[in-house]
């Protein structure tokens, strides 16, 4: 007992919550752990620029960790006003122009700096992990973490983690020629006690009481068996969500299967085609986003995600109807 | 100009000449149609997959946005068709346009499951084509719908509270 306490005390003395926040030294896995933990369990607020191709979108993120739960508000600063208030994976999305609050559950959405899910050790199976130089971003020192794919089914990632907290200040996705195809970066940042709890409340909280509240997306996000399987998704991509979504202009629900390798994700959609017909496969990559369209009997398969074209193709080609044991069985 | 287009297609132009031809092609309706027709003819002659370039008019109508990226791209190996992307004005969406070639009435309806579509060699006149908008899927994947996307869904499924 005494020995355990002695082991814990130095961490307390440093003001750190847990050994996982230990100085990661030269271990990239430890840096990734620290980055993931910091994005989830620390308090910060700042402006995030998201650049894809020639488009830049600014948003403001406010993140608190209290009572063992994440509380986050994301406000769009460009384009139509909207806000997302997130409690762990539950999201309330405020649409002032439609006077609607939409409830949803985070499945495939990516919110910088919380880009990592699953265990960093698992990432090492499919990415070569290494540490790069110490850089200066936003007047703060950060260490680059390199994730270089071991195959052609995912993009390289460059993450710059602030030295003291491990929080990601910048994240880049690199294309096949090592060009930046997508980037998230903070352009201002406040940490810890500089952020007050009152900042978390939605700007629209009071007025939204009279708005429509739509919980259908949340209901849809509950995992259901869609009857479809992806036989051979790219290695390391595991199923993180399976649901049926209602979509505008589509009379029937669309099956969605979400896969993630811990940092990159893709969605596999299957929708009924009303008129059976032969269609041609189609694929394209644009920036970090790839899409693959493929006919499957009387259905259409669409796979898209922040992965190379080869990955959406591999997933899309292995979609099949789940084998039924026997109707009424089980 | 027609000759220039033809040369452009064959990769015989470079630098300023190519630029002039491209600009001419994209600025003139008649030349745009010719450019398309040449490609359809070329595809048919090579027996390649259908509808590598869909009707520009229909794409434009479908996405109601000025596409910024419709330049021919290197097709990935083993894929007959292509999907084009265009940037949409909306914050959360990237419009994705796929087009699909249909072999209408030339084959029995109801192809068997998982049977890949065979390369089509029908003449251009016998082809019909349909544009599939995949932009909504981008919105669903990112879980950040815009109001346009959102309204039709909510209209059918709103429980006030």
DSSP helix count of chain A? 5
What profile does the largest beta sheet of chain B have? 3 strands, antiparallel
First-to-last CA distance of chain B? 63 Å
Low-pLDDT stretches of chain A: 1-20
Strand sequence of the main sheet of chain A, in spatial order?
Answer: 7-8-9-10-11-1-2-3-4-5-6-12
Low-confidence stretches of chain B: 40-131, 152-161
The secondary-structure class of chain B comes to: alpha+beta
Please tell me what the overall shape of chain A is: globular
Nearest-angstrom radius of gyration of chain B? 19 Å
The number of domains of chain A is: 2
Order of helices and strands of chain A: HHEEEEEEHEEEEEEHEEEEEEEHE
At the first level of CATH, the class of the largest domain in chain A is: Mainly Beta
In sequence order, what are the helices and strands of chain B, one letter per element? Answer: HHHHEEEHH
* Count of extended strands of chain B: 3
Strand content of chain B: 5-15%
State the helical fraction of chain B.
40-55%
Quick one: how many beta strands of chain A? 20
Helix count from the secondary structure assignment of chain B: 6
Looking at CATH, which topology of the largest domain in chain A would you report?
Answer: outer membrane lipoprotein receptor (LolB), chain A
Q: How would you sum up this structure, described in words?
A:
The complex is a heterodimer of chains A (330) and B (161). Chain A is mainly beta and 330 residues long. Chain A folds into 2 domains: 14-210, Clam (outer membrane lipoprotein receptor (LolB), chain A); 223-321, Phosphorylase Kinase, domain 1 (2-Layer Sandwich), CATH 3.30.200. Chain A contains 5 helices and 20 strands. Chain A has helices at 2-13, 28-41, 120-126, 216-220, 309-317; strands at 44-52, 55-66, 69-76, 83-87, 90-95, 100-105, 127-137, 140-149, 156-162, 168-174, 180-191, 212-214, 228-230, 238-245, 254-260, 265-272, 282-286, 289-296, 299-305, 319-321. In chain A, the strands form 3 sheets. Chain A has a 12-stranded mixed β-sheet with strand order 7-8-9-10-11-1-2-3-4-5-6-12. Chain A has a 6-stranded antiparallel β-sheet with strand order 14-15-16-19-18-17, covered by helices on one side. In chain A, β3 and β4 form a beta hairpin. Chain A is globular, with a radius of gyration of 21 Å. In chain A, 45% of the residues are buried. Chain B contains 6 helices and 3 strands, in the order ααααβββαα. Chain B folds into 2 domains: 1-46, no CATH class; 49-161, no CATH class. Residues 40-131 and 152-161 of chain B have low confidence and may be disordered. Chain B is globular. The chains are: A mainly beta (330), B alpha+beta (161). At the A-B interface, β5, β6, β12, β15 and β16 of A face β1, β2, α5 and α6 of B. β17 (282-286) of chain A pairs parallel with β1 of chain B, so a sheet runs across the interface.
């Amino acid at each position: 007992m005494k020995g355990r306490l002695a082991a814990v005390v130095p961490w307390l003395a440093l003001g750190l919550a847990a050994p996982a926040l230990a100085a990661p030294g030269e271990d990239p896995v430890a840096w990734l752990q620290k980055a993931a933990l910091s994005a989830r369990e620390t308090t910060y607020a700042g402006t995030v620029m998201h650049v894809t191709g020639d488009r830049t979108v600014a948003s403001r993120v406010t993140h608190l960790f209290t009572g063992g739960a994440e509380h986050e508000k994301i406000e769009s600063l460009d384009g139509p006003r909207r806000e997302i208030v997130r409690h762990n994976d539950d999201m309330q999305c405020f649409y002032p122009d439609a006077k609607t609050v939409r409830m949803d559950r985070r499945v495939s959405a990516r919110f910088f700096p919380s880009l990592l899910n699953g265990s960093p050790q698992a990432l090492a199976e499919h990415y070569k992990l290494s540490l790069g130089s110490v850089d200066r971003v936003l007047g703060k020192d950060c260490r680059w973490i390199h994730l270089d794919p071991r195959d052609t089914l995912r993009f390289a990632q460059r993450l710059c983690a602030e030295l003291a907290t491990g929080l990601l200040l910048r994240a880049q996705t690199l294309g096949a020629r090592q060009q930046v195809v997508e980037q998230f970066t903070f352009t201002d940042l406040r940490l810890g006690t500089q952020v007050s709890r009152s900042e978390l409340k939605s700007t629209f909280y009071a007025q939204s009481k009279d708005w429509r509240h739509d919980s259908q997306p949340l209901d849809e996000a509950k995992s259901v068996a869609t009857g479809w399987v992806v036989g051979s998704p790219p290695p390391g991509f595991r199923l993180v969500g399976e649901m049926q979504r209602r979509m505008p202009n589509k009379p029937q629900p669309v099956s969605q299967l979400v896969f993630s390798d811990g940092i990159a994700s893709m969605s596999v959609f299957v929708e009924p085609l009303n008129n059976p017909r032969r269609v041609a496969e189609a694929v394209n990559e644009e920036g970090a986003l790839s899409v693959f369209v493929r006919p499957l009997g009387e259905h259409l398969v669409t796979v898209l995600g922040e992965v190379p074209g080869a990955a959406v193709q591999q997933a899309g080609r292995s979609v099949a109807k789940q084998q039924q044991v026997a109707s009424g069985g089980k | 100009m027609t000759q220039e287009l033809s040369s452009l297609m064959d990769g015989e132009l470079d630098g300023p000449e190519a630029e002039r031809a491209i600009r001419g092609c994209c600025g003139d309706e008649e030349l745009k149609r010719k450019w398309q027709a040449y490609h359809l003819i070329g595809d048919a002659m090579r027996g390649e997959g259908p509808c590598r370039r869909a009707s520009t008019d229909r794409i434009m109508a479908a996405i109601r946005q000025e596409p910024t990226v419709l330049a021919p791209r290197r097709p990935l190996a083993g894929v007959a068709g292509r999907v084009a992307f265009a940037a949409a004005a909306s914050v959360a969406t990237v419009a994705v346009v796929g087009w699909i070639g249909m072999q209408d009435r030339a084959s029995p309806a109801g192809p068997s499951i998982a049977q890949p579509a065979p390369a089509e060699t029908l003449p251009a006149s016998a082809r019909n084509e349909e544009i599939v908008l995949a932009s909504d899927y981008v919105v669903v994947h990112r879980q950040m719908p815009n109001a346009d996307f959102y309204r039709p869904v909510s209209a059918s499924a709103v429980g006030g509270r």
